[in-house]
From TrEMBL:
Keywords: Glutamine amidotransferase, Hydrolase, Lyase, Pyridoxal phosphate. Gene3D superfamilies: 3.40.50.880. It catalyses: aldehydo-D-ribose 5-phosphate + D-glyceraldehyde 3-phosphate + L-glutamine = pyridoxal 5'-phosphate + L-glutamate + phosphate + 3 H2O + H(+); L-glutamine + H2O = L-glutamate + NH4(+). It comes from Neomicrococcus lactis. It comes from the Bacteria. One of its GO terms (biological process) is pyridoxine metabolic process. This is Pyridoxal 5'-phosphate synthase subunit PdxT. Its EC number is 4.3.3.6, 3.5.1.2. The gene is pdxT. The active site is at 79 (nucleophile), 183 (charge relay system), 185 (charge relay system).
């Protein structure tokens, strides 16, 4: 049986649990390193990347997650989860000691947090997503975007940013790692989770 862990330190992990259970698979909330054992995949939810970063280090699960990623565990991150999967954050937050936020990394990309600016902190858009025949309803909540990707990163979706008169990347895949700057888990959209399950099963 396929079991997917959902990192449950902070953020909208319940929505991801519901999405996976809707698709008939079992889920495990993950807070401790030992809960990573035996998982077929892991989801890092939306929330606040600085908090997920801090709590994951306090709970001593940050290093085990990095090792699992390096070992090939399929991981999907939405929004703050996308930030946590990025090798580089171009505008990191700093703690009181002046240390920048850290990520688990894994995807060769640079991300910008809260990138869509204040007026449009949160918005919904139907977007084209590579491999899907119908547009996908994407909910952006103080969302990051991907500024640049390395050679081995596949771009799955981009959106037009009117203030820039340009597009920005909002969904990527790199080997077993999938990341979206929007939240399919909150809109009843299940096709991104379906894609993640296919990646886990080696079908995509
Ligand atoms: N909806 C979200 O996950 C927002 C992400 C948040 N702005 C961050 O930096 O982590």
């Amino acid at each position: 049986m396929t079991t997917i862990g959902v990192l449950a330190l902070q953020g909208d992990f319940r929505e991801h649990i519901n999405a996976i259970e809707d698709l008939g698979l079992s889920t495990v909330p993950v807070r401790r390193a030992r809960e990573l054992h035996g998982l077929d995949g892991l989801i890092i939810p939306g929330g606040e990347s600085t908090t997920i970063d801090k709590l994951s280090r306090i709970f001593e699960i940050a290093e085990p997650i990095k090792e699992a990623i390096a070992g090939g565990l399929p991981v999907y991150g939405s929004c703050a989860g996308l930030i946590m999967l990025a090798d580089r954050v171009v505008d990191p937050a700093y703690d009181l000691q002046g240390n920048p936020q850290q990520t688990f990394g894994g995807i060769d990309m640079s991300v910008r947090r809260n990138a869509f600016g204040r007026q449009v902190d949160s918005f919904e858009e139907d977007i084209e997503f590579k491999g899907l025949d119908k547009p996908l309803k994407a909910v952006f909540i103080r969302a990051p975007w991907v500024e640049s990707v390395g050679e081995n990163v596949e771009i799955l979706a981009s959106v037009q940013v009117p203030s820039l008169d340009a597009t920005r990347i909002v969904a990527v895949r790199s080997r077993n790692l999938l990341a979206t700057s929007f939240h399919p888990e909150v809109s009843g959209e299940r096709r991104v989770h379906e894609l993640f399950i296919k990646i886990i099963r080696g079908e995509a």
